[in-house]
Design brief:
33% of the residues lie in helices and 31% in strands. With 388 residues, it is of the alpha+beta class. The protein folds into 2 domains: 232 residues, 3-Layer(bba) Sandwich (FAD/NAD(P)-binding domain); 88 residues, 2-Layer Sandwich (D-Amino Acid Oxidase, Chain A, domain 2).
Amino acid sequence: MCNKKYDITIVGGGIIGMSLALSLKLNKFNIKLIDNNFNYYNNYCNLDTKIIAINYSSVSFLKKINVWANIDTNIIKSYKKLEVWENNNLKLSFNSDILELEELGCIIENNLLKKVLLNLILKHRKKILVGYKLININFNYKLNKWKILLNNNDIIYSDIVIGADGAASLTNKILNDSVNIWYYKQSCLLIRIITNNISDTIWQEFYPSGPKAFLPLCNNQALLIWYDYPSFINYLSNLSINKLSNEISKYFSRRLGNFKVLNKSSLPIKRVMTKKFTKSNFILVGDAYCTIHPLAGQGANIGFYNINILSNLLNNYNSKYCNLSSLVNYYKILCMYKNLPIEVGIDLIYSIFKNNSYVLKKLRNLGLNIIDNSFLKKIIMKYALGLY
């Protein structure tokens, strides 16, 4: 058993945890990164269905911490347009030209990004120490540090603990006596396809049962995202590739064109809400803090936004002028200012579009038309891209 002390311990080696570790000043902090599943990222499926759309602000953050330059451009697909509609005659269209940007963001496989991050982490192994699985955390008042027990029976002490261990978060359970989990009345089918109709546009069509979306990928591939009632998604998941292709042709927009299904996976959609995400230098980030409906693709981007704030605060922290508790409280205020409108907005979109009322349908299509032709479009774009 060894007893080591660290300035910062990050629990969770996903894209948020590893990005945060790389964003901290390694000449200022001793950092411990805890995750028991790092080898997984070197054995990814080259037809993975877990894809993330990273917005402009998140790409800028990854460039700032020297991650983006290490990503092969052949695995990144930039997108310049985003279109949503319910009635094909009333589209809400977002274009990078409106904000004079080269792109709205980029699309990349989740595990490919993890692999790049892990390779960078391993280059700094003397400064970012990787290892083992978390068993428990409690506060040692005598040392004024967090005491962390690992599964190899090592005990480490840390001034700050950051939980970045995802939706099934142990750190969340430790920090909160109870966690509110609410399952949406939808599940999601992710379908990777090859198609001859690739562009630089993400599009999404709304239905009362759930939206259907298209994300362009590299090499003439794309990801279809099919939200629907859990029973129907379960039915689709069990179909053969040929029968599933018939269902896609039946329900998806004709603009999809010719395609071939390569892979598929399904998952339930849940909302995880924590009562608190900071406590005595213990901070939750990413999905450990909250999960939201993925219909707007904001989950990972909220995570990147939050750790950008946190790393800036920590890197500029000086104990002579500010104590850690004040820093954590300031972080909490900044995150709530950004996160809460997005969380409420996405839940509102889900609630409005799942209702099949004729009057409500007319009103929401009128709303899309008003937004598309007013100053509100720029405001929404800036907020969604992390530019506010």
